[in-house]
C-alpha cells in the first residue's frame, strides 16, 4: 500500500501539472501538513525529476499546453453565454467599448450585434466576425501581429493604436486569474497588451468562467489596476471568490439568465 507521503506527492505533481505552479503555503493548507513537510516533498520530487523548484514553491516540468481558440469555443459554453448576457446589459447607446480577443469576449460581441449606435474596438478575430454584419455597430480593429493560437492581434502596432484611444468600458479575457497576480497568459506580449488595455478606461471587466479562477497555467502575467470587476458564472465557489473580495475587487456572478446573483452569495 502506498504511504500517505507518496500519495501526497503524487497529488502535488497533479496539482502543479493542472495549475502550472504549486505554492508551499497553499499546499501546506490544502494537505493539512507543515510547510517544512511540503518543502521536503518538493525537494524529493525535484530529485526524482517530477518537478522544478521555484521561489516559494514548484512548477511542472512539462509546459501546460495552450489550447487553440477553436478548441476553446465549446468549453463552458453556457457559462460564457451567461457572462456575456450580463456584460451586454451594461453597455449603453453611444458608448465606445474595447473587447479583448477570446471566446468569452466573442460571446459578448455576439450579444451586441443588434445594439444601437455603439462603437466596438477589438483585438480579436472572433469579435470582428460576430460584428461584421452589424449595421448599427461601428467596428474598429487595433491591428498588429495576428497570434494564431488566440486569433488575437498583439505587438507594437496594437500597442501604438491603443495609446491614442480611451473607452467607456474595457472587457478582458484570460487563461487564468488570481487576486494576487492578475491575468495569466501563455505569451508575455499578450499580457503586455492586456495591461495597457486596462489603463484605457476607469471601468475594467475581466470575463472568465469559473474554471479559470485561481489557475496559473503559464508564466506571463498582467497586473490589474486598483479598481476592476471580476465577472464569472455561478459555478464559482465562495472560497474561490473570497481572495478577490478580500482585496476589494468587485465580483459579479452571472446566472444562466445573465442576472447577477453574487449578492446572495456573500
Automatic annotation (TrEMBL):
The entry's keywords: Transcription, Transcription regulation
Pfam families assigned to the protein according to its UniProt record, in alphabetical order: DeoRC, HTH_DeoR
GO molecular function, one term: DNA-binding transcription factor activity
Organism of provenance: Prauserella cavernicola
HTH deoR-type domain span: 5-60
SUPFAM superfamilies: NagB/RpiA/CoA transferase-like (SSF100950), Winged helix' DNA-binding domain (SSF46785)
Protein name, per record: DeoR/GlpR transcriptional regulator
